[in-house]
Amino acid sequence: MTGGAEHQAHARYEPGPAAGPAVTGAVAGSAVPLALVLGHVWQYAVLAAAGLWLLALRRGVVSALLAAGGVGLVAALAGLPVG
């Protein structure tokens, strides 16, 4: 996934028939249902921080996923509800 980022960006802006809309739809089609199943307030804070990391600071997806997973692990070890 991370290795194909430049190809996905190219596909989105390529004139003519391209896979850009399908790629964008696939990402939104998986991200939206996952965001809708968040059940605890702290999870929304992690989602907001990841959005800021990715969109405003334009940082990497892998680092955002690792950080979110780390926060989830710390939250679970601290006794916060995770399920």
What this model shows, in words?
- The protein is an all-alpha fold.
- The protein has helices spanning 5-13, 20-36, 41-56, 61-77.
- The protein folds into two domains: 1-37, no CATH class; 38-83, no CATH class.
- It is built from four helices and no strands.
- Helix 1 (5-13) crosses helix 2 and helix 3 (41-56) packs antiparallel against helix 4 (61-77).
- The longest helix is centred in the middle third of the chain and has 17 residues, at 20-36.
Key traits:
83 residues; mainly alpha; 2 domains; 4 helices
Strand tally: 0
Strand-pairing-aware structural class: mainly alpha
Number of helices: 4
**Morphology call:** elongated
User: How far apart are the first and last residues' alpha carbons, in Å?
Assistant: 27 Å
Mean pLDDT: 83
Q: Which consecutive residue ranges, at least 5 long each, have pLDDT under 50?
A: none
Report a brief summary of the structure.
By secondary structure, the protein is mainly alpha-helical. Helices cover 71% and strands 0% of the residues. The protein has helices spanning 5-13, 20-36, 41-56, 61-77.
Secondary structure layout plus pairing:
Layout: H1 5-13, H2 20-36, H3 41-56, H4 61-77
Helix pairs in contact: 1-2, 3-4
